[in-house]
Amino acid sequence: MRNKLILGIIVGGVVGALLVLIFLVFVDGKTNKNRNGIQLVTTDSTKAEEAKNQQVLVYGDYMDLDSTDYLLIPLGMKTLENVENGGLRSKNADEYSATTSEFRSFKYNFYALSFGNCNNVIFYNKVTEETHLLLQQPAIISQFYFPYYDEEYKGDKYWFILMGIHEYDSNLDGYINEDDAEKVYLTDLSGKTMIPITPDGTQLVDWFIDAKTNTILMKIRPDSNKDLKFNYNDEMEIVKTSISEPSIAKAIIGKEIKSNIKKILKKIK
After folding, report:
1. Is the sign of the CA dihedral 150, 151, 156, 159 positive or negative?
2. Which of 21, 44, 147, 230 falls 20 to 30 Å from 263 in CA-CA distance?
3. Strand 120-125 vs strand 103-105: parallel, antiparallel, or unpaired?
4. Whole-prediction pTM value?
5. CB–CB of 215/242 below 8 Å?
6. Rounded to 5 degrees, what angle do the CA atoms 110, 111, 116 make?
7. Rg of the chain's alpha carbons, rounded to an integer?
């Protein structure tokens, strides 16, 4: 009986240790997965230099910018040491065979850029051969929309680019990625004049154009519960700004209306 008890303790200890090990591996893998993006430079200059030496540029498919002489070329980077978890990825062979373009038709005859984690966009002027970058700082361009009208299109036309950019580490985890706040900008078709149009500490959920008032309405998600995350637990807002004279968008639903809505909803079981 005593031998069986000792054997049971040993087996139980081994099984427990294995379960703990599996749990730690799972948590570590999940943590690494969630930390895709731009890793910020640390004070360790040696490691920082090694990381730079392992990064290579990746260019996406170019696209003509309608009614201009510009070509748009998305730009990213990948890390040679760990391409899968580097967060700055290009499409693999399977993805390229499945799609012929990195731009997809959106709404209002706008196209949307889709390029994994895009860090920048090159504007190349085919006539003057001038080349310039959209951004001058590390960032993730999470959303990028630009107009593209064919001869058959007879609706309202808009000549701006709308983009959402993760440009700082809002949750202080050492990375810039999709978990951080996203600033929305409106720019002209040259990509040289960028005007911020959303409040700090928010992410863009969707956007709409009201042709009659020449305005953009945006559904945004602030970190309303202050947990350094942007998810379904946060209360969304609808904000509006002018297309011709863009500025930081203002909420269209006031505090009084919100309070009244909550009072009504409390009566529902």
Report:
1. positive
2. 230
3. unpaired
4. 0.75
5. yes
6. 145
7. 24
Tens digit of each residue's pLDDT (9 = 90 or more) over 171-180: 999 999 999 9
Q: Which two tokens stand for residue 166?
A: 């993760």
One-letter amino acid of 254: G
Report which residue type is found at 257: I
Q: Do 224 and 243 form a contact (C-beta atoms < 8 A)? A: no
Average pLDDT estimate for 180-205: 96
3-state secondary structure string, the chain? CHHHHHHHHHHHHHHHHHHHHHHHHHHHHHHHHHCCCEECCCCCHHHHHHHHHCEEEEECCCEECCCCCEEEEEEEEEECCCCCCCCCCCCCHHHHHHCCCCEEECCCCEEEECCCCECEEEEEECCCCCEEECCCCCCEEEEEEEECCCCCCCCCCCCCEEEEEECCCCCCCCEECCCCCCEEEEECCCCCCEEECCCCCEEEEEEEEECCCCEEEEEEEECCCCCCCCCCCCCCEEEEEECCCCCCCEECCCHHHHHHHHHHHCCCC
How close are the terminal C-alpha atoms of the chain, in Å?
A: 58
